[in-house]
């Protein structure tokens, strides 16, 4: 059974909290506590949240949700972001597509491009381009993470350092006004950092819910990012990015901001 829209918003919200109270969810969504507790039960049964006294908490700050569970989060925003990113990448470019479900959407949006050279450690992305024999695809080496459908580790890093990419499309686990771009573990952070180092243009793709998420591994400061593609952004966040020289490209707006 798929998650309903409210459950998806709860799942986003809890990633930004140490504890999300039932009463706060009742007030925000204007439903009964019984309805919210039913939502909690379904999320907990899938191991997407941890039950806490009076509410719920994220499962972990050291690991992201499994890839399959993230694919449907903020799907409308991710698709809008992806279309805008694809419009900024010309035919014939070399592109490294990194980790994450928003990056997967970028790959889908690039399927109509011509003469691309695609580099990736993202197994889902590589599979998408299998239908386009005229697009060159190179996978990194590395250790496969089954839950996330990607390749990581020193072999993946060594593979990436053999090339320089015109565009690096970077996902992330979280964003923080002080610490910059974050991921959930060192393997993810190392891949993302190498992507930044090896790309002439670094394009960060992140919906508004990435701000404040409890990711714990530092990737890079915002001054290493050329452009952020997002669906919405607060004034304080915008000021931080602009002071770092990062271009902000707003693609759409979501409900429940």
List keywords for this structure.
single chain, 257 residues, alpha/beta, Rossmann fold, 2 domains, 7-stranded parallel β-sheet, globular
The name CATH uses for the topology of the largest domain is Rossmann fold
- What is the CA–CA distance across the termini? 26 Å
Number of domain modules = 2
The DSSP helix count reads 10
Strand content: 15-25%
Overall geometric form: globular
Based on helices, strands and strand pairing, what is the structural class? alpha/beta
* Overall number of strands: 15
Backbone CA Rg: 18 Å
Give the overall pLDDT as a whole number. 88
Largest sheet: 7 strands, parallel
Strand order of the largest sheet: 6-5-4-9-12-14-15
Any idea what the CATH architecture of the largest domain is? 3-Layer(aba) Sandwich
The stretches of 5 or more residues where confidence is low (pLDDT under 50) are: 253-257
CATH class of the largest domain: Alpha Beta
């Amino acid at each position: 059974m798929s998650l309903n829209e409210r459950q998806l918003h709860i799942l986003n919200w809890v990633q930004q909290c140490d504890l999300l109270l039932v009463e706060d969810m009742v007030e925000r969504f204007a439903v009964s506590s019984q309805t919210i507790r039913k939502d909690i039960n379904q999320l907990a049964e899938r191991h997407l949240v941890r039950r806490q006294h009076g509410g719920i908490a994220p499962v972990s700050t050291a690991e992201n949700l499994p890839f399959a569970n993230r694919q449907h989060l903020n799907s409308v925003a991710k698709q809008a972001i992806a279309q805008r990113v694809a419009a900024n990448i010309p035919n014939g470019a070399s592109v490294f597509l990194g980790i994450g479900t928003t990056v997967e959407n970028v790959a889908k949006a690039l399927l109509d491009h011509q003469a691309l050279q695609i580099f990736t450690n993202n197994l889902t992305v590589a599979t998408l381009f299998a239908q386009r024999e005229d697009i060159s695809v190179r996978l990194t080496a590395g250790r496969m993470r089954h839950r996330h459908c990607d390749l990581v580790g020193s072999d993946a890093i060594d593979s990436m350092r053999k090339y320089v990419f015109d565009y690096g499309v970077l996902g992330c686990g979280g964003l923080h006004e002080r610490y910059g771009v974050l991921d959930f573990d060192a393997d993810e952070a190392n891949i993302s950092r190498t992507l930044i180092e090896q790309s002439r243009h670094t394009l960060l793709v992140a919906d508004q819910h990435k701000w404040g998420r409890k990711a714990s591994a530092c990737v890079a400061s915002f001054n290493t990012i050329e452009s952020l593609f997002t669906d919405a952004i607060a004034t304080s966040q915008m000021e931080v990015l602009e002071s770092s020289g990062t271009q902000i490209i707003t693609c759409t707006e979501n409900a429940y901001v």
